[in-house]
């Protein structure tokens, strides 16, 4: 098996590359359009072929590379069935394993950050998207977010995974790469330590986060599986321009 954690610094997004040695097929979880060339080069370096892209949810802070990778590499687009996107080739549902060669993911519907959010369990790890971050969680104040739903997604689903399961989030803003279920259960300041739903509600209500600067362009573009809008202001052009260099996590 191949596994790589790749980092996009503009939106602090982690993209995950999983590969099957037997079939040579690869999967990218949460690919970002500005680092598409970087990801394809890494897949080629490993001697793999991109078979699928898979997003955890409709992102508000970057444009997914799913559609452009389909055009460039012939990969198929997989995404949560809940969002009913017409551009998707494979609609992912909880209870139905998602397989790419010998790589088998177990999808978990984890709403709260968005109503269609999914996490994916693979072997000894879980890709938690924005539902569970290292010492944090995604916001719940847009895209049909729901604080109560996120609480139950984390405490009743993700926190019931084995304690030693590795937590790989979609973002980190402090250069951290990985956590564990045990660590998040014990010390996550929003959801760990046995916090009650009422406590979590108060925490989320007190955040007073600014309106996301790219959301009005990212969400419509991502509902089309990754279309850069033609009317981007100059200060946001970097969100669709390919980077020549991008650090890897």
Automatic annotation (TrEMBL):
Top-level taxon of the source organism: Bacteria
GO molecular function: hydrolase activity; metal ion binding; sulfur dioxygenase activity
UniProt-listed GO biological process terms: glutathione metabolic process; hydrogen sulfide metabolic process
Gene3D superfamilies, per the entry: Ribonuclease Z/Hydroxyacylglutathione hydrolase-like
Domain Metallo-beta-lactamase, chain residue ranges per copy: 12-171
InterPro entries: Metallo-B-lactamas (IPR001279), Mito_Persulfide_Diox (IPR051682), POD-like_MBL-fold (IPR044528), RibonucZ/Hydroxyglut_hydro (IPR036866)
Keywords: Hydrolase, Metal-binding
Annotated TM spans: none
Protein name: Zn-dependent hydrolase
Lineage: Bacteria, Pseudomonadati, Pseudomonadota, Betaproteobacteria, Burkholderiales
């Amino acid at each position: 098996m191949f596994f790589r954690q790749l980092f996009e610094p503009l939106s602090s997004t982690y993209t995950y590359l999983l590969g099957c040695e037997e079939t040579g097929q690869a999967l990218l979880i949460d690919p970002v359009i500005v680092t598409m060339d970087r990801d394809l080069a890494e897949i080629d370096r490993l001697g793999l072929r991109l078979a699928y892209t898979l997003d955890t949810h409709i992102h508000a802070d970057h444009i997914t590379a799913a559609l452009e990778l389909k055009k460039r590499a012939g990969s198929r687009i997989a995404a949560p069935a809940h969002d009913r996107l017409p551009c998707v080739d494979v609609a992912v549902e909880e209870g139905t394993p998602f397989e790419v060669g010998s790589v088998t993911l177990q999808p978990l519907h984890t709403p709260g950050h968005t109503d269609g959010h999914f996490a994916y369990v693979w072997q000894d790890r879980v890709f938690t998207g924005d539902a569970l971050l290292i010492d944090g969680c995604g916001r719940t104040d847009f895209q049909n977010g729901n604080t109560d739903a996120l609480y139950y997604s984390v405490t009743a689903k993700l926190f019931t995974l084995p304690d030693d399961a590795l937590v790989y989030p979609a973002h980190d803003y402090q250069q951290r790469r990985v956590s564990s279920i045990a660590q998040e259960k014990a010390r996550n300041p929003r959801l760990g330590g046995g916090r009650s739903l009422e406590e979590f509600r108060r925490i989320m209500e007190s955040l007073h986060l600014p309106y996301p600067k790219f959301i009005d362009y990212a969400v419509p573009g991502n509902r089309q599986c990754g279309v850069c809008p033609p009317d981007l202001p100059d200060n946001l052009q970097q969100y669709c321009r390919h980077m020549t260099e991008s650090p890897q996590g």
